[in-house]
Design brief:
There is one protein chain. The protein has 7 helices and no strands. The chain has 120 residues and is mainly alpha-helical. This is Putative transcriptional regulator.
């Protein structure tokens, strides 16, 4: 399973899902952490209040890795006209034909800016 977490509230159901997938109870995890079941229940109910160290210990018990990566930029926010790309999928156009066109446009704009700089 792979999840993208954007806000801390998303962590609660994910922790629970991984725990159940490992067929572990809250008591099982609490024992491994050296805390009471009630303490672990509070952590699972509100993981935002747990320390990062405690969360890492829980994730290790659940055999879950954290992978950090750069966010993918939403092209439609950078270039408003790119919102029209959504309609391309409705027209059943192949994205592999559209993407190179975007890069060609970027290249042409770059050349235009370079030539304007040279004229100054």
């Amino acid at each position: 399973m792979e999840f993208s977490i954007k806000i801390l509230n998303q962590l609660r159901p994910i922790l629970r899902s991984f725990r159940k997938a490992q067929k572990l109870t809250q008591t099982d995890i609490a024992k491994r952490l050296g805390i009471t079941q009630q303490s672990y229940a509070q952590l699972e109910a509100n993981p935002a209040t747990a320390s990062l160290e405690r969360l890492f210990k829980v994730l290790a018990i659940l055999e879950v890795d954290i992978i950090l990566r750069e966010r993918v930029v939403d092209v439609t926010k950078v270039i408003p006209d790119m919102k029209n790309l959504a309609s391309l999928s409705q027209a059943n156009l192949d994205a592999t034909k559209v993407i190179p066109d975007i890069f060609d446009i970027k290249k042409e704009l770059s050349y235009a800016f370079d030539s304007l700089k040279k004229k100054r």
